[in-house]
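Quick one: structure tokens for this chain, please?
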Amino acid sequence: MALFSKTYEATHLSSITASRNATRKLIRKASKGKFHAFSQLSVQYLDFLSGYFYTIGYVDIEQRSEEIIKLLVKCWRYLPYTKRVSDFERFIYTPVSYTHLTLPTNREV
């Protein structure tokens, strides 16, 4: 059982490493102005972003799409300053303003 576990861990880690390397290459290309590479990079994060914006209150698909586009435009703008995958992900995971949400008043509670 231990041998299977070690083999699985090694395989799993090598696939993660390969994925991160591919993402690194896309970031390098995109930071040089290659929009096609940026598009490929963005697609990798669309499910996460859609779920994230839905969770914080953007239930309407059009509003959610609009917010995702705004965030990706900001990412494109700051991409030349991004050197690592973690820099790009940190930018994507930054907290979003909650001003679009309305909190219930005391009467509604």
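The chain has five helices and no strands.
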